[in-house]
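[recover] target loaded
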């Protein structure tokens, strides 16, 4: 069993259901402007944790008090997350602030994401 499989199994066993919301390309509105397209939604499983006070202090205000750290395993059926996306976890929608793929050999084994509730 490879590292990607182990991480995916861990997240599947200890994670929770979430929805990755990926925006689509804007569509012409017929008046020379554009309207947002219908976003696509992808069912994923994630592990979440809160940032520690040490991490918040270390990053000098880049991490808000209520930000979550989200770990997402690569999924053949969902695109890699970007900062253009949102994610719904437990009925709450969050903006993706940062995505850091952990890819020691060039292939992502997990995506480490910082997310923030817009509320």
């Amino acid at each position: 069993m490879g590292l990607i499989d182990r991480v995916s199994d861990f997240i599947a066993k200890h994670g929770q259901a979430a929805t990755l919301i990926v925006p689509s390309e804007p569509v012409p509105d017929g008046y020379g402007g554009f309207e947002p397209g219908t976003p696509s939604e992808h069912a994923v499983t994630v592990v979440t944790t809160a940032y520690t006070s040490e991490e918040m202090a270390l990053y000098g205000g880049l991490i808000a008090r209520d930000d979550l750290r989200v770990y997402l395993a690569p999924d053949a059926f969902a695109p890699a997350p970007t900062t253009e996306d949102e994610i719904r976890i437990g009925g709450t929608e969050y903006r993706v602030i940062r995505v850091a793929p952990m890819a020691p050999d060039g292939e992502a084994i997990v995506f480490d994401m910082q997310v923030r509730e817009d509320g």
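[recover] notes: The beta strands are 16-22, 27-28, 34-35, 40-50, 68-72, 86-89, 92-102, 110-117.
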